[in-house]
Design a protein that fits this description.
Elements (H helix, E strand, L loop, with lengths): L18 E14 L2 E14 L3 E5 L6 H9 L7 E8 L2 E2 L5 H10 L1 E4 L13 H12 L4 H14 L5 H4 L9 H14 L4 E5 L7 H18 L2 E6 L2 H4 L5 E6 L2 E7 H6 L4 H6 L5
Helix pairs in contact: 3-4, 3-6, 4-6, 6-7
The protein binds adenosine-5'-diphosphate and magnesium ion.
The site of magnesium ion (MG) has 4 residues, from helix 1.
Organism: Nocardiopsis flavescens
Family: Belongs to the ABC transporter superfamily.
Protein name: Peptide/nickel transport system ATP-binding protein
């Protein structure tokens, strides 16, 4: 347990330093013309250093809103309660400047559409090198070399040529792997990937999941892999949490949730297994 609520940058006060993300009783309510919409209802979960947690659930079950609340990316009209600690630092209630520092230093977020994270006017090498230069005291040349190295690590063929290309010159799967390379350059403690493979062909999905695996190995980061498709997380996570109607209804090992689901709902998701 923490002893103080501290909203300052870099504040850490947790005893169990092995827990990198600790979400407790998180709720999100949107106001709408039809009255309040409770999108997230008392969600709690913990992720340990280096662990991979899958969050699965049907569309609209609150997976994205949960992580957007943690990342401080919800519109101001959303009412958020509860707690989310990243390396012991409370992130719910931080102001924009404070939470953007947490996003840059501690959490990397990967979205379904890689173009939301990439800048169309800069080469991919430039964008990876920029991330390297914010975290390491290296020369521009060394940062570029590191960019090529990271492109190689996420499985991009001919990284020394690709490094000078622009996002539009790459396929969707390659772009997503570039986003993962940028996440690696930021050396995060937690990577939250929200439906990172949903827009991609099955063969390409595997490459992106392997790139996430490489990122986890390289940085030692914990991974929260969000998907509506249980089949996606099967070989790639240590534990699965199932969301339904804003609640986290089941958590367990992959085997437990896949083969001995407690809820008929989780059983229904098995339809998406390959
Ligand atoms: P999932 O990611 O599991 O598909 P979401 O977390 O995106 O689901 O959405 C959960 C619920 O919150 C849905 O009912 C959705 O319509 C609602 N919702 C999401 N974002 C907003 C928003 N910005 N304003 C109002 N309601 C929203
Ligand atoms: Mg979503």
């Amino acid at each position: 347990m923490t002893t103080t609520d501290n909203f300052n940058d870099g504040a850490t006060a947790t005893v169990d330093t092995d827990i990198v993300l600790d979400v407790q009783d998180l709720s999100v309510t949107f106001s709408s013309e039809d009255g309040p919409l409770k999108a997230v209802r008392g969600v709690s979960y913990r992720v340990r250093r280096g662990e991979a947690l899958g969050i699965v659930g049907e569309s609209g079950s609150g997976k994205s809103v949960t992580s957007m609340a943690i990342m401080g990316l919800l519109p101001k009209s959303a009412s958020v309660s509860g707690s989310a600690r990243v390396l012991g630092q409370e992130v719910i209630g931080l102001n924009d400047a404070q939470i953007s520092k947490v996003r840059g230093d501690k959490i990397a977020m990967i979205f379904q559409d890689p173009l939301t994270s990439l800048n169309p006017v800069y080469t991919i090498g430039y964008q990876i090198a920029e991330a390297v230069l914010t975290h390491r005291k290296v020369t521009k040349q060394e940062a570029r070399k590191r960019a090529v190295d990271l492109l190689d690590k996420v499985g991009i063929p001919h990284p020394d040529r690709r490094v000078d290309q622009y996002p539009h010159e790459l396929s969707g799967g390659m772009r997503q792997r570039v986003v993962i390379a940028i996440a690696m350059a930021n050396d995060p403690d937690v990577i939250i990937a929200d439906e990172p493979t949903t827009a991609l062909d099955v063969t390409v999905q595997a490459q992106v999941l392997e790139a996430l695996e490489a990122a986890r190995k390289e940085t030692g980061a914990a991974l929260v892999l969000i998907t509506h498709d249980l089949g996606v997380v099967a070989g790639h996570v240590d534990r699965v949490a199932v969301m339904y109607a804003g609640r986290l209804v089941e958590t367990g090992s992959v085997e437990d949730v896949f083969y001995r689901p407690r809820m008929p709902y989780a059983l229904g998701l098995l339809g998406s297994l390959p």
